[in-house]
Amino acid sequence: MDILQLENKNIVVMGVANDRSIAWGIAKKLFAVGANVIFTYRQERSAKKLNLLLEKNNYKATVIQCDVNSDESIATAFTEIGEKFGTIHGIVHSVAHARAEDLHNRFLETSREGYAFAQDTSAYSLIAAAKAAHPYMTEGGAIVTMTYLGAERVLDGYNVMGVAKAALEAAMRYLAADIGQDNIRVNAISAGAVRTLAAKGVPSFNTILHKIEETAPLKRNISQDEVADMTVVMLSPLSRGVTGETIYIDSGYHIMG
C-alpha cells in the first residue's frame, strides 16, 4: 500500500540552490515516492547547477525559469506547468533572500530598499506562487513553505530575514484560511539549523549550531533528510486534517526557555 499516495502527483519545488538545499533534500524524497517533480529556478546559474544534480542522480524532471520578484515571470511559469501537466497537486516554497548588508549591519540600519526586497522575495513570493498555481490545483492539494525560528525570536544576525519570515508565517495562515474551501492546505516547516547556502549568510550560524546541541531536548542538530521527510508527509494525504500550522523540525529547541 502506498501510504503517502504521491505517486504520479505533480509537485512544484521552488528554491534549489545546490545539493545542500533543503529543497533538494525534499525533491529526492519526492522522486523516491514516485512523484513528478517540477523545478523552478530564478537565474541561469541555478539552472545549470540543478541540471547537473539531476544528471548526476539520473533523475528526470521538468525545469522552468521563474523569477519570484516578477509577477509576469511567475504567471508564465505556472501557466507553462499547468498546460504541460494539467493539475498541480503540491508546491514546495523554499525561497528566501535578503541583502548581505542587512544581515551584517545593525537592524537599525536596515534600508527601505533592503526591507522591501527581503519581504518581496521571502514572503510575498508565497502569495504570488499560490495565486498563479491556484487555477491548476483543481484536485485540492498542499502548499508547504520553509520558515525559521527567527520569525518569532530574535536571533543574532538574522535581522531583516526574521521580519520577513514572520510575514511569511502570517501569509501562510491567511492563505490557509482563504483557499481551504478549495481543499488546498497551506503549512510551514520551521527547520532547525541546516548547513545550506542561505545559512552561510547568517553571521552567528556556527554559534547557533553549538547552542542547539547544548540546549535542544534531543541534544543534536537536525538533518536535511529529517526536514524532507516531514515535508513529504505534509504534502501527502496523511496530513489532510492539518492546515495553517507551523511545524518545527528542530530537535525540540523551540520549546526551551
From TrEMBL:
Keywords: Fatty acid biosynthesis, Fatty acid metabolism, Lipid biosynthesis, Lipid metabolism, NAD, Oxidoreductase
Phosphoprotein recorded as keyword: no
GO biological process: one example: fatty acid biosynthetic process
Binding site for NAD(+): G15, S21, I22, D67, V68, V95, K165, V194, R195, T196, L197, A198
Coiled coil: none
Molecular function GO terms recorded: enoyl-[acyl-carrier-protein] reductase (NADH) activity
Protein EC: 1.3.1.9
Catalytic activity as recorded in UniProt: a 2,3-saturated acyl-[ACP] + NAD(+) = a (2E)-enoyl-[ACP] + NADH + H(+)
Organism of derivation: Lysinibacillus alkalisoli
Pathway as given in its UniProt record: Lipid metabolism
Protein name (Swiss-Prot/TrEMBL): Enoyl-[acyl-carrier-protein] reductase [NADH]
Positions with a binding annotation for substrate: A98
UniProt xrefs under PANTHER family: ENOYL-[ACYL-CARRIER-PROTEIN] REDUCTASE, ENOYL-[ACYL-CARRIER-PROTEIN] REDUCTASE [NADH], CHLOROPLASTIC
The keyword Lipid metabolism appears for this protein: yes
InterPro entries, alphabetized: Enoyl-ACP_Rdtase_NADH, NAD(P)-bd_dom_sf, SDR_fam
Active-site residues per Swiss-Prot or TrEMBL entry: Y148 (proton acceptor), Y158 (proton acceptor)
Top enzyme category: oxidoreductase
Assigned protein family: Belongs to the short-chain dehydrogenases/reductases (SDR) family. FabI subfamily.
